[in-house]
Amino acid sequence: MSPDKSLGPLGQITPAYTLLTLGFPIADESQKAAAISTLEKAAGEIVQAYPWLAGQVVNEGFGDGSSGTYKVVAHEPHETTSRFVHVKDCTENCPTYTDLVKARAPSSMLDGSILSPAYGFVNSYPRHVVKPVCIMQANLVKGGLLLTICTFHGVMDANGNDQFIRQFASLCRGKKIAEEYVRWGNMDADTIVPPLKPGEEPLSMEWIRYPSQLGAEEPT
Questions:
Q1: What angle do CA 161, 188, 174 make, to 5 degrees?
Q2: DSSP letters of 48-79?
C-alpha cells in the first residue's frame, strides 16, 4: 500500500508538530518488552488502515513564485516492523514513574529534549528537515512508560490527533477500527475541500464578520 497522499490547501498551514505525552505504570519491569510489542503491533495495524501514517511530508515545486505542493510520500525508516514507534531507555536520566505521579508531573520534571523526538507547536520546521507524519517515542522510566506522540500539524490538527490516539488505543486493546473511520481518514483532501477553479471567486466571508460583543471600554 502506498503512503502517497496530497494534503490539499490545508496542508500549507504551520509546519509544526502537535505533542502529547501519556504515562503508563508498569510495576513489573519484565512487562516492558510486552508493552513495546503491543505498541509495535498496533502501529503495524493502523498503518495498514492509513498507509500515509508511515510517510513523511515534503514540499514539491517550491520556488520561482510558487509555494509548492505539500504531499505525504514514503519514509523508509518507518517501513520497518516497528513502524513509527521508537524506543528510548530513560531510566538513568528521568525521574521514576512514582515520583512523577507524586509531583503531578510538572513540566520541570519532563525534559522535552529527552522525552520528545520533535519540538512542538508553534515552532516551525524548515523545508529541508525530514518531517515524518507521526513519531511515537516510548520512553522507558523506572516503574513505567512515558509515550510521547508527535503528529505533523499539516496532516492532522488537534482533532485529528485525538482521533488517531483513540483509534491506536483501540488497537492496543485488541479491537478493530470501524470501516467508516478508515474511509473518512483516507479521503482525498481536494474532495473534502476543493480548490477554487480558474476564475472562481471565493465565497463571501461577511457572514462570519461581525462586531465584537465583549463591550470593552477601550480597544484591545
A1: 45
A2: HH-GGGGSEEEEES-BTTB--EEEEE--GGGG
